[in-house]
Amino acid sequence: MSATATSWLAHVVAAAGLLLAASIPLAAQADPHAGHEPPSASTAASAPVVSMPATQVVATQDAQAIVPRPTDADRQAAFPDVHAHAMHGASLNSFVLFDQLEWHAGNTANGVDLDSRGWIGGDRDRLWFRAEGDADGGRLGDAQAHVLFGRQFSRWWDVVAGVRQDFRPGPAQTWAAVGIQGLAPYWFEVEATAYVEAGGRTQARLALEYELRLTNRLILQPLFEMELTGKTDPERGIGAGLSTSDAGIRVRYEWRREFAPYVGVTWSRKWGGTADFARADGAAQRRVRLATGLRLWL
Hints:
Elements: H1 3-28, H2 41-46, H3 54-66, H4 72-78, E1 93-106, E2 111-121, E3 125-136, E4 139-152, E5 157-168, E6 173-184, E7 188-197, E8 202-209, E9 212-213, E10 218-229, E11 241-253, E12 259-270, H5 272-280, E13 286-297
Antiparallel strand pairs: 1-2, 1-13, 2-3, 3-4, 4-5, 5-6, 6-7, 7-8, 8-10, 9-10, 10-11, 11-12, 12-13
């Protein structure tokens, strides 16, 4: 064999030896997944991505040993069932409203009107008062005052009971009064009161009021009121049945919530026997008046 052939055979043997040496470590390494079936989709989804460090596992176990898990008794003590009613404040408060403090002019003599109410007491029990009257041409017309005890029986309603004192017209007269007052649906303010006098005469009054906010400070206030009488009272010129009705529309501007000038128009009418007494006395049975005044509350 020539030297060239010998040299080429030596290179082939050396290359084969290198390949054999490289293949031995690869074959010696075991397949980590050998003998295991591939995991299912549910097992792969439930398997944690990152395992908890050993130190954290020990700390968690120590914390559970120190602070035990809450029991049902612990939860009951922390969140007991409340069976008592909500408590109301015991502080004494008061409120006074001059709803109408006005001057009017119309087809009769000019005059003034006053309508005020207020209360003193707590959240549920209050002592109420109402006072109203009018004067035409410098002469006092109607004048009366109420003193009533009020008890709240629902969120928006009070029941009231007390006395009403009439000063004019005619001689002074005292009435026992009972009624309800509050906010009806759609925010109508309602006062419904029944009266009985020592002589057996009866009366009833219904007043409805509403406030429509045109702007943040401009408010439209419609008002309707009517009175019914059980017996004719010639001394005061009042007939049985529907005796009087009053309606009005006032527009006020609230410079402040407690100080608001207003203008408006009112309509008054006497009905039935009351109109007959007015006609016989030469008084008007209907009145239309322009009004301007102030609405104040304290």
